[in-house]
Amino acid sequence: MNKELNTTCCIAGGGPAGMMMGLLLARAGIQVIVLEKHGDFFRDFRGDTIHPSTFTIMDELGLLDDFLLIPHDEQTEVKGTFSGKQYCIANFARLPVVHKVIGFMPQWDFLDFLLKEAKKYSTFQLMLHAEATGVIKNGSKVTGVSVNTPEGKLTINTRLLVAADGRGSIVTRSAGFTPIETSAPMDVLWFRVSRKEGDPEQPLLNLVQNNIFIAITRKEYYQSGFLIKKGDFDRIKKEGLAAFKERLRKVIPFAATRLDELEDWSDVKLLSVSVSHLAQWYLDGFLCIGDAAHTMSPLGGVGINLALQDAVAAANILYEPLGNKTLTLTDLKKVQDRRALPSRLVQKMQVILQNMIISPVLLHPDKEVKAPLFIRLLQYLPLLRTFLGRFIGMGIRPEHVRTPVKTNAN
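^ that's the sequence the OP posted. Answer follows.
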């Protein structure tokens, strides 16, 4: 016999969106269970970007001072290098926010911080090694979720099931939703490169010939990404690891000798890039947020920001009807109505940038890599760099915490 649990809200997925929504609902007095299929948050090659809007959310929660104590890197500008020449693309110094930088923090540290705060409330529960496998319906209404745990099958009955289990969401597909795909010209190969004294400290974006390299600084290494033409990984592997490392030396010459740290292809992880969205995010008793509702290109690192904005908006809109047991389809529709437009506009901008910057480099390897005209013009237009900083750092329709604190912290 399956074990059963009951809760007001169950969130499938312990990533940024799921943990943020869980924290906000729990402090508002809503019983919430967050399901995480792994045993911890420690997984490499996840997005590490902390946007100015996220620092603002932490400030509105009264947590910013403690949050800033977590080791992280900060930058006031986004820069890119095209064939050896560096350009400033976006500036955050003039944004109307409390912390005018973009940060880079290992995602597991960010999630551990959210968990530490959420555990202060008796209304919050995180279940590890708990994989949501499918929705449970009564007619057209979602009433719960099936869960695999080390102890066996589990059924969680809930007033609201939230799919926050990322791209390829099992829960979303089990609810009958199929994402609408937009073509993406690239995939990303992720790997580590160790750091040494004297290395560049800020995140890197370097384009040389048909090679595009990105890196996020960590204390002892770079979380590194190499963009390739979509579907090209098998061909690259056939050419051999030595040939791949030779391509890398062109874009990170300062670390050329350290590329021998890549001993075999198991050290290189493929991220298949997709840009997609759901036509509808909700059913009666069910809601999708974050990557489960809209997958983003890695350009700008905005996926985490959008997921967190979804979580804040959903909590703002739903905490009251959840607490009053009056939740309706209209309430769930309000979440999509508020968040669908920002996500779609950002996706459209990403597609434009992909076509303008990424595709020419990957698809026309014999051409010299030049900075697009608009990036060259940015060097003479500081207000436009600030505008792009606002677009990247705050997004469209930034959210603010409106949920109350109704639960006493432990």
